[in-house]
Design goal:
335 residues
């Protein structure tokens, strides 16, 4: 099993706790090769990662990132994200030769189960597998897809590196970035879906392998009404994921906006996160400050006091109509 993470020094503690949970719940896996794309991790934190892995008889190999803007010859608008999010699109170049398949896992996760069933799945000719991100039609059409095409969350993705190399997927991603002048909705996730979705080379994995915060924050019917995906996610799988997640992904969500390393987090897996933190080399590190922007805090506070039906209608309109239209207008003006 080959697992890839990417982290800066400021996120290393969060990544380390995720890696610890991975190793703790996959002790039965004979070979577990972990690669860390090192985006400026300090010697102290590197030492903590290495020592933690040694206790499980595992090795973490550090690899260097690429200069994505230099590679694409394009200034990239990263918005509230970091340029490092693009690294997962270029794993064939970043990782050592001879690796044919990888599982990429975001830092802000907990791995709670054995991942062998996921690793051993038949990819059936697809080049990437991930969880349905439940986005509206405009998020697809904005990047050249049909409304019914697959749109995958990039937090946990299984990649057939051999197929990526043979079919020059990296080059296709660079071309997509250039064609959109480096300004893509949801940054690398938009690139990933724009390239592989159009080729019909991406597939859906069970949502328990990337159980998003939104799945815990909303009941199935509410999330479908809010995001209006052209093809609704499977209800049974959605409910199975929430009841028994294999990987919990603490991504941002306005309704549950604090994350478990910040005091006051209401996520149902906050206690589990703190348990793994206590087992880690960062056990004594203090809780982090709430770094949400003022608009984010106002959105969270405002929607929390609104009647549920009204909140869903308002956020749905903003999410499925206003934001995509603004992105479309921006793209039109840039041409």
């Amino acid at each position: 099993m080959v697992i890839v993470y990417s982290s800066s020094d400021s996120y290393c503690e969060i990544a380390g706790i995720s890696i610890l949970s991975l190793m703790e719940n996959n002790t039965n896996v004979e070979t577990l090769d972990i690669y860390m794309i090192d985006n400026g991790i300090s010697p102290e934190n590197r030492e903590k990662l290495v020592g933690m892995a040694e206790k499980y008889g595992r090795v973490i190999t550090f690899v260097s990132p690429l200069d994505i803007e230099k590679l694409s010859d394009t200034r990239i608008n990263i918005g509230r994200w970091n340029i490092s999010t693009f690294y997962r699109l270029f794993l064939p170049t970043i990782l050592p030769k001879g690796i044919d398949k990888v599982l990429y896992i975001d830092c802000d996760t907990l791995v709670l189960q054995d991942l062998s069933p996921l690793w051993d799945m038949d990819m059936e000719g697809k080049w990437l597998y991930g969880v349905d991100d439940c986005r509206g039609a405009a998020y697809r059409t904005n990047i050249g897809l049909r409304p019914e095409d697959k749109y995958i969350n990039n937090g946990v993705i299984m990649i057939d590196l051999k197929a990526w190399k043979e079919n020059k997927v990296e080059e296709k991603c660079l071309e997509f970035i250039r064609d959109h002048q480096g300004d893509i909705t949801y940054v690398d996730q938009g690139v990933q879906n724009g390239v592989l979705g159009k080729l019909d080379k991406s597939g859906y994995m069970h949502p328990k392998y990337n159980c998003l915060t939104a799945f815990f924050a909303f009941k199935y019917d509410d999330l479908m009404r809010l995001r209006k995906p052209p093809v609704p996610m499977d209800r049974k799988q959605y409910e199975e994921a929430v009841a028994n997640p294999a990987i919990v992904h603490f991504q941002s969500c306005f309704k549950m906006s604090l994350r478990p390393w910040v005091k006051g987090c209401k996520h149902p897996y906050t206690l589990e996160y703190q348990t793994y933190k206590a087992m880690s080399p960062w056990a004594d590190s203090p809780m982090r400050k709430d770094d949400r922007t003022v608009p984010q805090k106002l959105l969270s506070a405002g929607t929390s006091i609104m009647p549920n039906g009204l909140m869903i209608r308002c956020i749905s309109f903003a999410h499925t109509v206003v934001y995509p239209a603004a992105r479309n207008m921006k793209g039109f003006l840039q041409r």
